[in-house]
């Protein structure tokens, strides 16, 4: 019963809920929290994958997703701690998700091709040392590629070495060099880190949605 002695109608209750005066029911809250917990990390991972193709677009998408998470969790749901956790995990996910997506994609669907290493160079720039490898296919059209550390050129191969590269069947990404003897389990570690950060981001988002506070 309302303050004026009348029982509010269902329409009035719904309108008040839309205005933020009445918290959503448990089922609606859980569904909404789960939707955001899935959507935000998914967009971050999508941005990471796009970033392997067009770097600046991927960075914009990932930063937008992190900003959206911070605004939603901290500004709308008023859970500062969860917002900090999701934001930090999201930024770290930017570092691991890109390599994880690339390595998983090339390892699972990449087309193997025999190649020979023709050049290995260590170029220094403002960010530090960057390794670059030039490889030429030994069969087919004998295409030549120059790959960087992003494509797993870390000096594990020397000029003249014969290697089996993995080529993108869609032709969008540069080939990936095989792992060296001292790079065992690096793909698994990268995938595990990306998976853990994804779950942490999702868990922080879901928790915040379930424990959201109403604006005073």
Automatic annotation (TrEMBL):
The chain crosses the membrane at residues 33-50, 56-77, 84-102, 189-209. It comes from the Bacteria. Residues 1-25 are annotated as: Disordered. Keywords: Membrane, Transmembrane, Transmembrane helix. This is DUF3592 domain-containing protein. The lineage of its organism: Bacteria, Bacillati, Actinomycetota, Actinomycetes, Kitasatosporales.
């Amino acid at each position: 019963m309302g303050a004026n002695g009348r029982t509010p109608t269902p329409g009035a209750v719904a309108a008040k809920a839309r205005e933020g005066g009445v918290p959503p029911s448990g089922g609606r809250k859980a569904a909404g929290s789960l939707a955001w917990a899935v959507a935000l990390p998914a967009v971050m991972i999508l941005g990471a994958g796009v970033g392997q193709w067009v770097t600046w677009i991927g960075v914009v998408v990932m930063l937008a997703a992190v900003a959206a998470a911070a605004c939603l969790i901290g500004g709308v749901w008023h859970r500062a701690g969860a917002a900090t956790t999701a934001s930090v995990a999201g930024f770290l996910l930017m570092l691991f998700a890109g390599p994880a997506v690339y390595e998983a994609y090339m390892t699972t669907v990449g087309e193997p091709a025999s190649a020979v290493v023709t050049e290995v160079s260590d170029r220094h720039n403002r960010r530090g040392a960057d390794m670059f490898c030039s490889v030429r296919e030994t069969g087919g059209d004998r295409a030549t590629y120059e790959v960087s550390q992003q494509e797993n050129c870390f000096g594990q191969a020397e000029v003249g070495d014969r290697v089996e590269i993995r080529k993108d069947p869609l032709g969008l990404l540069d080939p990936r060099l095989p792992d060296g003897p001292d790079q065992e389990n690096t793909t698994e570690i990268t995938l595990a880190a990306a998976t853990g950060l994804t779950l942490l981001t999702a868990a922080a988002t879901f928790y915040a949605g379930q424990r959201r506070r109403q604006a005073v």
